[in-house]
Hints:
Two copies of one chain form a homodimer. Chain A is α/β, with parallel strands linked by helices. The first copy, chain A, folds into two domains: 2-113 and 346-495, nicotinate phosphoribosyltransferase (Alpha-Beta Barrel), CATH 3.20.140; 170-331, TIM Barrel, CATH 3.20.20. In chain A, 40% of the residues lie in helices and 18% in strands. A six-stranded antiparallel β-sheet of chain A has the order 14-1-5-3-22-23, with helices on one face. A six-stranded parallel β-sheet of chain A has the order 7-6-13-12-11-10. The model of chain A has no long low-confidence stretch (mean pLDDT 93).
Amino acid sequence: xxxxxFRKCPFKGEFALFxxxxxxxxLISHFKLSDExxxxxxxxMPGIDPGYVEWLRGIDCSGIRVHxxxxxxxxxxxxxxxxLEGPLAIVQLLETPLLCLVxxxxxxxxxxxxIVKAAGPGKSLLEFGLRRAQGPDGAMxxxxxxxxxxxxxxxxxxxxxxxxxxxxxxHAHSFVTSFTGLDDLTVRGTGTTVKAEDGTEHxxxxxAQACLAELGFGATNEGELAAFVAYCRSYPKxxxxxxxxxxxxxxxxxxxxxxxxxxxxxxxxxVGIRLDSGDLAGLSVSARAMFxxxxxxxxDASFDPAKFVIVASNDINEKTLAALNAQGHExxxxxxxxxxxxxxxxxxxxxxxxxxxxxxxxxxxxxxDIGKVTLPGRKQAFRLYGKDGAPILDLLAEAGAPPxxxxxxxxxxxxxxxxxxxxxxxxxxxxxxHLVWADGKLQAELPSLHAIRTxxxxxxALMPAACTSLSSPETYKVAVTEQLHTGLHDLWSKESSxxxxx
Amino acid sequence: xxxxxFRKCPFKGEFALFxxxxxxxxLISHFKLSDExxxxxxxxMPGIDPGYVEWLRGIDCSGIRVHxxxxxxxxxxxxxxxxLEGPLAIVQLLETPLLCLVxxxxxxxxxxxxIVKAAGPGKSLLEFGLRRAQGPDGAMxxxxxxxxxxxxxxxxxxxxxxxxxxxxxxHAHSFVTSFTGLDDLTVRGTGTTVKAEDGTEHxxxxxAQACLAELGFGATNEGELAAFVAYCRSYPKxxxxxxxxxxxxxxxxxxxxxxxxxxxxxxxxxVGIRLDSGDLAGLSVSARAMFxxxxxxxxDASFDPAKFVIVASNDINEKTLAALNAQGHExxxxxxxxxxxxxxxxxxxxxxxxxxxxxxxxxxxxxxDIGKVTLPGRKQAFRLYGKDGAPILDLLAEAGAPPxxxxxxxxxxxxxxxxxxxxxxxxxxxxxxHLVWADGKLQAELPSLHAIRTxxxxxxALMPAACTSLSSPETYKVAVTEQLHTGLHDLWSKESSxxxxx
Lengths: 502, 502
């Protein structure tokens, strides 16, 4: 019996959200060595036992049983995310691939949830991390678990296609710099016309130029204006213009407003702008003020530029979000790449996979580092809820022991410090682990990525706010029963030698 | 014409090693949208122009030309790693995938090289990062570029198989904890015998127990001894024992020495031990002293335990390596996972992809952040070498301008600060970019991963030591010619509006 768990919540926080179960079960379902794999193992292990080679050819996970938390669950140190039982040698082979699939997934889901929380209510969060991930598949994992953690979309089109995540994005800076002036629209064959809602053709370039003057703006970068015209004539209903290529407030925003007004008069509607450099809070406030002023100047109630969306990107993380909120801003949506996908504040979750029982005997791993001592034995985990409906603590108990009951007081002990203990009288008891794999097949239909995302949000909402706080959170208690506590300390004494001090 | 470059060397250093070219060219060779891809794009872009859909069906990279640095090259800010020219819309589609393939590869190659350097000469470095990478493919990239940067092996068996990297590793803690005593060897059918060099069978368990007493050790953990016997009877020539499961110096090292002595007497040879927790420097010194004492106690010149290998792992990074070296230790080999593969000190390289010329016109991207202004125009890059054979600086020049010549003085200017300039009289001039893709095919055979690794090491050895220093390095100069400098500043003035201050 092996437990997969972590010892410390990531990002100096006091919660995590479990990710990676679906992919872990994919591995377990398909775990098999090809003849080529077996030959490779033979080639790198001189003197390998031929019986072992034969055994390798036949291995699969049909003899394994897996219990797991639901994907998206709020999860805490020492509570197993996965519990595996089955033939020792096979389960040991799964250690590293399972950790690979669960560690980053859980880290990313948690990171995404924290960033969504840091952005504050009503904000939209887009994952922009493909270019900064650990190669293409690292990026796919990032997109998947960013969405599971509560992000609203991705710019990764392949992830959108394969995982059904909403896809969002803007054009590139290079799209803007590729235009030197309005002539390019003709010279390059892009064209300047756009079809109005009524089907008639109009010269968007000429109308945007007229709108620039009407709005009272001075000279702007003409190449940028051409780029916006080219973009908006192709996507007159969904255009979001990147405005910081030359000068955000003196060129980008005026050019955008001019094109947006021209589009409006043809029955279309621009979406907004994206800021990608500079003082994002200040620029967003200034841009919003320019939107409002433009609306007042035009004085047409149907043209309401004050509501344009402002998207911000550029190295945004939890801290910059807190700073933006403290400063005050007009940003509606964030595009977040590097800090999200690399989990810059803590790029790895230290999940581990430890043997806790063999042939009915509990096993322990001791360590010079006391925090690395494992919790031996086959365990069940319960989440005990209080009267207010919020979880009070997670309780680990020996498997087979009678579960805690609603309304009955139960003694809960700290894992290592015997003096830290409390009584809990739960109003609700939730068994945390579910059998997900046995008899060579999945034991239940797996939820969709969308369902996991919804569940993760419900879990976060359910936890005590003090534990999910981003700054100075309180520790959510993970306790053990009296019986488990005794078992741990008996085994610890038994397996460690008593030092002779001379 | 697009340049792919970065603006700042990673890890507060002053060098990087270029990685990812082979994978980037793999993308370029196979770049094509399937019918399914095109249908997906159509589904997410309502109102898409049918001509655009048709165009998407036919795209490939046959019209693209790519120049690149050699993979493994020492590389510096602003010097393009890749230069792409070809149809604008296609090159723009390559922006994000190319950045994805080059950013992490370059970061990892550089990180690995720094860690090898931090470990010091004569040390062996093993990549142990699979469980902490961004999913399985992130881990494959990590293994590949750790090796390119100078690591000596990986514990990732798939990477070993697919990329030809030497594979190294030890057993797991769970292998040790799975044994409760020597009886398990019989009960579980593992067996206790081992074949000596002369073909005779011997009871390794009994002999190891006798050796424990002969070496004068007290009681050790018997389950651990059983695990070492089981492991060493299977791999009597290559066994490396993980000694920290219960108590490194009182159980792990004695058990290892006992088994190693027993093996020695049967004509075999153990490899050494692995430390995975505690004070690694102190434990390595103590373990080495125990090895030496065991050799003296046995007094058989053919048994030389002082030379056993000591492998250390457990959250090692550049800083801990420096601390270990300052403290003094007896470690021969490091296994490094988390900090290596996540590049914890800086988990992303900020490589960007910028349009620098279109239809013969140089283009620029301005920014609120002056460091984000691009270097316009089609450029060549030269590395100018001094009399001592070391590079003096990299010089960017307009393409087509006459190249610098050996023995002729050339004026080299700072990119933005006109007052910073110098004359260089090169003893050797190296053209840095090579045509790698044109006419729809590779322009030269790509070097193997091993050759890239060798080249990277040569490059590091060639650079001025002050620039590759890990702490307080000097900046390696990247200069521009007078002509390029003028072009940059003329275009900058032209594209930026002059503010009206009132």
